[in-house]
Design a protein that fits this description.
mainly alpha; 9 helices; globular; single chain; 77% helix
C-alpha cells in the first residue's frame, strides 16, 4: 500500500492537479473567511469550515479524484497495476490515502486563518479542531465516492462531472425544490461538528458511507482483474 501511496502522492505534485486542488481550496477558504469573519467581525471558525464543506468540496474533490483510476485505464497502465503483486485492496487504499493527504495538507494551511484571528480574538481551539476533524471525515467520504466513480470510466472529465453532479445534486434539490436526498447528501452529517460537538451518529454515517464506496471500488477493480 505504501508504495502505491507514495507513487500517487508524488504524481499529484509532479502534475498540476495537487497544486490546483490546494490552490482552489485556499482560494475558497480566503473568500469565505472574508464573509464569515472579516466583514461581519465574527470569530467562528466553524462557519468557515461549514461553508467550505457545502460550497467547496463538490468542486474540489472531483479535481482530486477524477484521475485516480480513469488515468490508469486511459494510459493503458491499469493492466500492469492490477496484475502486479500488490493486492487490489492495497492499491485502492494507497490511492485513497494519497488523495486524503491533499486534504490534510490543506487543513494544515487553513490554520493560518486561526492564527490571523488570534491577533484580534482567539477563537475556541477545541471547536476549531472538532470542525476540522468533521471536515476531514466528510472529505474522505467524498473522496471514496469520487474514487468509485473514477473506477467506472476511463474519461477523467466524465468522472469529474459525475462526481460534481452527485455531490452538488442534494444542495440543488434541497435549496430550490425542498427535496432532501439523504443517502448522497453528505452535508447532513456535518451539522454538529462546526459547533464543536462530536456527534457519534454523524461519525458512524460518514464512516459507513466511506467504507461502502471503498468496498464498491475494490469489487469493481477485483472484477476487472478477474476479467483480465
Amino acid at each position: 500500500m505504501w508504495a502505491v501511496y507514495k507513487k500517487e502522492l508524488k504524481s499529484y505534485f509532479l502534475s498540476p492537479i495537487g497544486y490546483i486542488a490546494i490552490g482552489i481550496f485556499l482560494l475558497a477558504f480566503s473568500a469565505i473567511f472574508l464573509f464569515t469573519t472579516i466583514f461581519v467581525r465574527g470569530y467562528d471558525m466553524g462557519s468557515l469550515y461549514f461553508y467550505i464543506a457545502i460550497l467547496g468540496l463538490p468542486i474540489i474533490i472531483p479535481v482530486i479524484t477524477m484521475r485516480m483510476f480513469s488515468e490508469e485505464r486511459k494510459n493503458g497502465t491499469e493492466q500492469l497495476l492490477i496484475t502486479s503483486p500488490r493486492s487490489i485492496t492495497s492499491i485502492v487504499f494507497g490511492k485513497f490515502f494519497a488523495a486524503t493527504t491533499i486534504v490534510i495538507i490543506t487543513l494544515l494551511f487553513s490554520l493560518l486563518y486561526y492564527v490571523i484571528l488570534c491577533f484580534f480574538k482567539a477563537p475556541n481551539l477545541v471547536t476549531t479542531l472538532v470542525a476540522m476533524l468533521g471536515f476531514l471525515l466528510l472529505s474522505m467520504s467524498a473522496i471514496s465516492l469520487g474514487m468509485f466513480i473514477s473506477s467506472l470510466t476511463e474519461h477523467q472529465s466524465i468522472a469529474a462531472i459525475l462526481n460534481f453532479g452527485v455531490l452538488f445534486l442534494p444542495i440543488i434539490t434541497s435549496t430550490f425544490f425542498g427535496v432532501e436526498i439523504p443517502f448522497i447528501n453528505l452535508a447532513i452529517n456535518y451539522q454538529k461538528f462546526p459547533s464543536g460537538l462530536v456527534s457519534i451518529q454523524e461519525i458512524v454515517n460518514l464512516l459507513a458511507f466511506m467504507i461502502m464506496f471503498i468496498l464498491f471500488t475494490i469489487i469493481i477493480m477485483q472484477r476487472r482483474k478477474s476479467v483480465k
